[in-house]
Design brief:
mainly beta, 6-stranded mixed sheet, 4-stranded antiparallel sheet, 50% strand, globular
Length: 121
């Protein structure tokens, strides 16, 4: 099983980025794919999650915020769109796959290697 996160980089405040998480190695039916981030010196925190089969997201009103999660099953990829980036969004962003409780890190079975996002003011 492999989760490959990509799309990070160095950007300016106010820019947008779309991170990708490509999954492989097993069926992810019944799994939730979550995005987490870990800022320098901080604990890793949950950003959002999406159920692979249904496309339902953990935060129902996320479309009104800066982080929008989506998935394309044909491409085996989950995306995290981040708009209006701020310096405090600087972190390593990880994707992971689990079977329940999207907001609980300890419920995830598989983790990707992370992609670094650096936002300059």
């Amino acid at each position: 099983v492999q989760l490959q996160a990509s799309g990070g980089g160095s950007v300016q405040a106010g820019d947008s980025l779309r991170l990708s998480c490509t999954v492989s190695g097993r069926s992810f039916s019944g799994f939730v794919i979550g995005w987490f981030r870990q800022a320098p010196g901080q604990e890793r925190e949950f950003v959002d999650g999406i159920w692979w089969s249904s496309g339902l997201t953990h935060f129902y009103d996320r479309a009104k915020g800066r982080f929008i999660i989506s998935r394309d099953r044909a491409k085996n990829t989950v995306y995290l769109q981040i708009d209006s980036l701020k310096p405090e969004d600087t972190a390593v962003y990880y994707c992971a796959a689990g079977r329940n409780r999207p907001d609980r890190q300890d419920r995830y079975d598989y983790w990707g290697q992370g992609t670094l996002v650096t936002v300059s003011s």
